[in-house]
Design a protein that fits this description.
2 copies of one chain form a homodimer. Chain A has one domain: Winged helix-like DNA-binding domain superfamily/Winged helix DNA-binding domain (Arc Repressor Mutant, subunit A). Chain A has 6 helices and 2 strands; from the N terminus they run H-H-H-H-E-E-H-H. Chain A is mostly helical. Chain A is 57% helix and 10% strand. Chain A has a two-stranded antiparallel sheet with strand order 1-2. Chains A and B meet through helix 1, helix 2, helix 3 and helix 6 of A and helix 1, helix 2, helix 3 and helix 6 of B. Chain B binds a DNA duplex through helix 3 and helix 4.
Chain lengths: 122, 122
DNA sequence: TCTGGTACTTCCCAATTGGAAACTACTTTC
DNA sequence: GAAAGTAGTTTCCAATTGGGAAGTACCAGA
């Protein structure tokens, strides 16, 4: 009869749990994955481009989310020397390392949707 | 000069974005991954076991999160016929399909931590 | 009968998140 | 000079999230 934690007391689990918290604190929120996914797909987009691509987002959120992603080195921001000043947002090399993770989530989400709305013989 | 969305207008992107939203709506929150991870690691835990394993969680949150996970068929709840009534929480077969995703997040989180606190020659 | 263990629920509150609308600021075009 | 396009910021508000503490209910053992 155990009265104290056992499973998660191991070093390996502690590290894993911490890692998941780290990752999710960077990637949580309604828009992060949408923005990252869009930037992975189409490189170098302006603020207004993103506003049009990421359906439903407003200027405040987009601005804030891009800042978050920038300080975490997932997205880079470059002010261009154009007549009406434009800004180029691109995914960084480091941001690209999220591709397998995003793919895995998308894959699971697609399967989930199938299992809910899909065939009834399950 | 494009004025309308182009990248995310494709059917493939729409489906992917929807899938990511689906998945995250089930898995977001402070505790979901911790609970799932613990249940994947150690099968069949009681409410109080989980309360001890998932460091920091309170009864209210644990109860609510377990209900969420149960309705989405990721965790199963079984009331045991014991003297002081006990409940067994187990991960479902479907819940186990989250393993690769959880592994991927943990892996990325560990690498992220290394890139922040790790070697400076990067 | 009182303490302790199981498994919760309820209530109240604070912090965070997210959104709409308006506003800034600068430039080019009509 | 007004309109439109660039890239945001600010303000105000509502909804969601999360936590602490206490309460409920049932049973067993000292």
């Amino acid at each position: 009869m155990k009265k104290t934690a056992e499973i998660n007391a191991t070093q390996v689990c502690q590290v894993r749990m911490q890692a998941i918290s780290d990752a999710m604190s960077l990637l949580s929120g309604k828009w992060k994955f949408h923005i990252l996914g869009t930037l992975i797909e189409g490189n170098a987009l302006g603020f207004m481009d993103l506003l049009r691509e990421v359906k439903g987002i407003g200027t405040k959120m987009l601005s804030k989310e891009l800042q978050d992603l920038e300080v975490n080195n997932l997205v880079s921001r470059k002010v261009m020397n154009t007549k009406p000043i434009t800004v180029e947002y691109t995914i960084t090399e480091y941001g690209k390392t999220l591709s397998p993770l995003i793919d895995e989530i998308a894959k699971w989400g697609i399967d989930y949707r199938k299992s809910v709305y899909g065939k009834t013989d399950k």
